[in-house]
Design a protein that fits this description.
Laminin; two-stranded antiparallel ribbon
Length: 152
Amino acid sequence: CTGNGICKCRVCECFPNFTGSACDCSLDTTPCMASNGQICNGRGTCECGTCNCTDPKFQGPTCEMCQTCLGVCAEHKDCVQCRAFGKGEKKETCSEECMHFNMTLVESRDKLPQPGQPDPLSHCKEKDVDDCWFYFTYSVNSNGEAIVHVVK
């Protein structure tokens, strides 16, 4: 019974939190917990303590790895560009599409938030429509609000 139950008359009687004919299936979902607090990142099911990713783009032990997904920087580049500088691909639709984050303009790159704060932080360097680099950080606070800091 894999050490997780007692064999009685050739049938395993599983201890709590275990199931299966050989008690080899853990009902503990802790190993399936993604960094965002969701079971299998909301993209799979937890079976016997292992994620079975149902969204084919996502893989890994907690369905958090996505090779084909845009990074945070590329994903938010157009919205940051129109909000901060009034230009870019989303210039015309900025007020409809790009109001989902709080934005703060800072004077220089050394005024951007630095790693070491409690919220996960992405430092971004992207090119704008004029082929110039612009810099921003993207983080999500404990209330689930997106916070963006952009260098003027």
